[in-house]
Amino acid sequence: MDLTQIYSNPESQQQRYAALKTELESQGYAFVRYARAPGRVNLISEHTDYNGYQVSPIAIENDFVFAIGTKAGSGIVTIQHMDPSEHPTDSFDSCESAASIAHPNGEWSQYVRAGFHAARTYNENLSYEFDLLLVGSGTVPLGSGLSSSSALTCCSALAFLAFENEVDKVKLAQMVAKSEATVAIEGGGMDQAISLNAELGKVAVIKFNPLSLSFVKLPEGIRVAVFSSMKDSKKATGDSNFYNTRVAECRAGCALLYQKYTKQEFASNVKINMCADIQTLYGKKSPSQMLSESEELPEKLSLKQLAEQLHYKSVDELMNSLFTTQAGGILLKNYTDKTQLTIQKRLNHVYSEAFRAQMFERVLSNISDDDHERLHQLSAISNFMKESHVSCKDDYECSCQELEEVIRAATNSGAFCARLTGAGMGGFAVGLIHAQDDEEFMAKMTAFYKSKGIKNIEDVLFLTDAGIGGGYL
């Protein structure tokens, strides 16, 4: 892998890489190699990965990079960012247990520590007989919904495995997803899978249980535009903790559907937590066939009502059975018996979005050379993405005023479709444009952002092709 494969402006990136190496060597470490992992933008299929359904992301050019260096020592790992005022330096002993190393600390380094946890899971004997320094910098905007945290965790895992003969990146992606959940939110594995395994010029189709990746070519003449709502997407923080709440609401709906189908009390040892599992249980060939079932779910239930319907003795028993995280915590914060869960709309979104993703893949896999047919196919792709956004806004309720405004601006500037991407509630949106319209689009969107007082346009607006996944340089 070389810089020309990765970046549209490799010259500026060369300076970035050189600065990392210079900083590392200035501290007496011998340079070994670079590790990098990109962010991603999801074209469709939002909030479906943790429900067991396929997703269709691409890797973007923006990434996280570590320079890796060693010197004589006893296995101490030091983690340093090129912007230490915002990202404090951290260190740990690689001989300690992975569980004691990977813990939430509210700093950027928690994701690096999670990367070590994943690397230790990949190689249970991982430790170092020398001191290790990682010096890094990232270009994925924070709080963007473009997986800045997963890019960092994936890059970290690669850095810690830099001395392996070969790394199975599909296998590693699954381990990174589980390790990242020890310090942050419950995800489904999409972000890590695409960051490590993306193919240049292609849209990934990622399926789960087991994890598999296939790729379809991004149509020629189409560019992906990515633009900020100017509101951070903080899915793992705040009292609302909306991301984990959505996970909980989906689990609640699945439990109710399970109980309805089996006509048995939902037991604490039942392990069906995902909408895809329920589709299999019901014997439906398409997720769209589950919509008639999800429409019969209650619109809302309090936790007390849900516990009663599922035959739990108390809300606390419900919480400790159905709503636990991989790290052993509880999905919902500050809950009471009266805490309300929205159920029907959430599953309506998941099943309809899963069907749209399947249709999106089908059309993308068969793009015609005939101009008339191709125009029809691009119109279908546009409609799928627009419908996805409406469902995210109305049924999953993960849009916001700022996202709606920037999406309107993008469509008025020439994007033939646009939608929120990532968890939502802020962050970035994504749109498709015809390549011949890219200059006009960028000019109009630049004017939009300048009218909002934004000076550094590159922080909020960029065009990208489908990028390449993480690796070593």
UniProtKB/TrEMBL annotation:
<keyword id="KW-0418">Kinase</keyword>
<dbReference type="InterPro" id="IPR006204">
    <property type="entry name" value="GHMP_kinase_N_dom"/>
</dbReference>
<dbReference type="InterPro" id="IPR019539">
    <property type="entry name" value="GalKase_N"/>
</dbReference>
<dbReference type="InterPro" id="IPR013750">
    <property type="entry name" value="GHMP_kinase_C_dom"/>
</dbReference>
<protein>
    <submittedName>
        <fullName>Galactokinase</fullName>
    </submittedName>
</protein>
<dbReference type="InterPro" id="IPR006203">
    <property type="entry name" value="GHMP_knse_ATP-bd_CS"/>
</dbReference>
<feature type="domain" description="GHMP kinase N-terminal">
    <location>
        <begin position="119"/>
        <end position="196"/>
    </location>
</feature>
<keyword id="KW-0067">ATP-binding</keyword>
<feature type="domain" description="GHMP kinase C-terminal">
    <location>
        <begin position="376"/>
        <end position="450"/>
    </location>
</feature>
<dbReference type="GO" id="GO:0006012">
    <property type="term" value="P:galactose metabolic process"/>
</dbReference>
<keyword id="KW-0808">Transferase</keyword>
<dbReference type="Pfam" id="PF08544">
    <property type="entry name" value="GHMP_kinases_C"/>
</dbReference>
<dbReference type="Pfam" id="PF10509">
    <property type="entry name" value="GalKase_gal_bdg"/>
</dbReference>
<dbReference type="InterPro" id="IPR020568">
    <property type="entry name" value="Ribosomal_Su5_D2-typ_SF"/>
</dbReference>
<keyword id="KW-0547">Nucleotide-binding</keyword>
<dbReference type="InterPro" id="IPR014721">
    <property type="entry name" value="Ribsml_uS5_D2-typ_fold_subgr"/>
</dbReference>
<dbReference type="InterPro" id="IPR006206">
    <property type="entry name" value="Mevalonate/galactokinase"/>
</dbReference>
<dbReference type="GO" id="GO:0005829">
    <property type="term" value="C:cytosol"/>
</dbReference>
<dbReference type="GO" id="GO:0004335">
    <property type="term" value="F:galactokinase activity"/>
</dbReference>
<dbReference type="InterPro" id="IPR000705">
    <property type="entry name" value="Galactokinase"/>
</dbReference>
<dbReference type="InterPro" id="IPR036554">
    <property type="entry name" value="GHMP_kinase_C_sf"/>
</dbReference>
<dbReference type="Pfam" id="PF00288">
    <property type="entry name" value="GHMP_kinases_N"/>
</dbReference>
<dbReference type="GO" id="GO:0005524">
    <property type="term" value="F:ATP binding"/>
</dbReference>
<comment type="similarity">
    <text>Belongs to the GHMP kinase family. GalK subfamily.</text>
</comment>
<feature type="domain" description="Galactokinase N-terminal">
    <location>
        <begin position="34"/>
        <end position="69"/>
    </location>
</feature>
